[in-house]
Fold each of these.
Amino acid sequence: MEKISYIITENGQQRLCVNGEALPGLAYITYLTERNCYQDFADAGYRLFSFPVFFGHQALNECSQLQVFTEGIFDSSKPDFSRFDKDMELLLQACPDAYVFPRVNVSLPKRWEQAHPDELCYNGCVYHPDSKPRACFSSDIWAQEVKAELKVFIDHVQRMPYHGHIIGYQIAGGNTEEWFPYDMQGSVGQRSAERFAAYCQKTGISGTRGEYMAFLSEVVAGRLCEFAEHVKACTGHRYVVGCFYGYTFSCPNIDSNHHALRKVLECKDIDFLCSPISYDYARKPGIDHVYMLPIDSVKLHGKLYFSENDTRTHLSRPVNDMPWYNAPVWFGPETEEQTLDVLKMHLARVLLHGHAGWWFDMWGGWYRSPGYMAFMRKALELIREAARLPMGSTAQVAVFADEKSYCKANNDDLSRGICETLHTLGAAGVPYDLYLAEDYPLVSMAKYKAIVLLEPAVTEASETVARCGLPVLRINESNMGLTTAQLRQFYEGAGVHLYSREDLVVYANESYLFLHTTRDGQHLLHLPGDTALTDAFSGAPFSPEFEAKVGTSYLLRKETVAARC
């Protein structure tokens, strides 16, 4: 049968195609569908949507004990699809031509876990005293039940009148739906111990904690591949399938289960990956909001990346009175103007790095203002326009990291310190591309003038990168606190173009330039060649000498001076 949806690479961009049409890669999702902004986004031209569906009514976040927002389909012995059907009806009333890829949370209901104590982790979440043991990802019995329930759900969807609006599935699960272990200690239980013992006997490894945690990451990645293959089989291989995974830089702790991205990238049944933009420093204005994963490796393997832009706004409010959800990270800037500058940064990530994204209106109503919706409409126009433009990266710096180095180092504090370098890289006034070290043989290196190697521990892959013949800055325990000035000094010695000699966030590709200021005052931009700039939102010419407050964003079109004249 003909494919309904698939991914293509075009003009330096990964794009989602549905029924032969390449869609602009922006979507809308909310957890609380009763507080949705479906009509607002449909009126702004959006056709791509998602919303959550839960197999079991359990804790969404074991660390906070926030429960999922609806009853689970499989909470009782007879499946209840009424909430999903109602949510589809609600969306299609607002947008009759919507395309939907539901976020399917496959976490099993309590009744299954109560009946299968040997298939659970030894402990509940280490961060909450009320957390109970949940499913262990090493359990084959658990995986078989997940696949059985997936088939029942997909069969129901395929029978319904709305099935023509479904264009793919996102497989979610684990803690916070992002395939973190429920125990937040690696998903350790009887079944993981048995599997690892057999693995040690087969391979002859000594069985250190680092080796155990690396093994458990492989288990989770293997499950994602297994579930994706199953969904493909259930749907005749006609729909895209994706998942959260590969939080290489934001979650370098070895018990995160996120250090086997390579396995997922090589899986033919996984079409897209997703993650939020990093939550570091509460996403305050005036810093770079960095990627959690090696975005350019994702693209290199032909996968589409969706950034989950759960961008807080001045309208964000607490979802409840839990202290967890009253921390600064859950609130946006104080004003709409400041929020729009952050939204521009998150849009620029999508636009200049050639991937997709969804606006995650988490608790509903975050974007319900004329100013935000005018931005959303313009964002979609810019994404459509970009489809006709050359959008390849013009970065002269490649950053590499070996995900295996974290478990080898077995030092979470060291790994986190080294990953902090991404914030230094982001503020140094120079754009960069971001790869897994194991992908080095696949990367076209001709355009790069310098390499930055994030190296908690030396590995075979990192040594291969270090021998590339270009200037290499190896970030390890001895220099992980380097400054932006030191970084620019290295770049200058390597012949890398500096867009700014002072701190400034810069993204660049063939057609666009993005700037985000890290300080108040005068700024001087150094442009390569005969380049002129116009503001992508206003159309006004942009001067390389400008004054701005900290946290101001500029999305700029590149033109040659001759074209301007």
Note: Residues 124 and 132 are 4 Å apart (CA to CA).
Amino acid sequence: MQNNYSIGRTTNGLPIMACDFGLKGKPILLLAGVHGDEIEGVSLAKTLIADFIKSFNYNVQLTVIAEFNLDGILLETRKNANAVDLNRNLPTTDWTSKEEKEKYFPGTSPCSEVENKNLVQFITEKKIEFIISLHSWKPCLNINGNCKKEATILSQITDYKIVEDIGYPTPGCLGTYAGLERDIPTITYELPRLEKNRRKVEDKNILAIKKVLSL
């Protein structure tokens, strides 16, 4: 079964579209496009949606949000239309108004951005139990919470390193909000940035994600 719907609107009033697959099993969220200039994750999520429309034979309830920060995607910028980094704006205990760099601007208060308000409500109401958040930077699998088994499978197929710390502070991020503070295992899945042979990269990551869904 496939179901398309909006979980809410962006700052500029555009729909944040979600696509559901499966009727039973663990509720899983596959999120992409948190940073609008990280198109690799958006592309991979859209490819997965196209594949799952053809066939979805997994005992999970999967939601794919391919273009979470649609304003940022259209503007080709990391941040949203309010110039806020959505992965520094979630209501975590470590949220701070101080940013290391301008590109990490966390907003004026935790969860000030409508995109994150929608996401928080969605995760709560859908009772999400596992999150994969697609980004692109240096390839790695940043785990928060009890998801070492899933990360190991992903790593075996992709050769991406599993890390518990990305290497710099990320206050207000999804991994902390969900994985550490709400016991929702979360993998921040960093794809290679600006890879020329994107299809080759996508093929192995599609295989890896499908393997995890088969658990």
Note: The first strand starts at residue 2 and ends at 9.
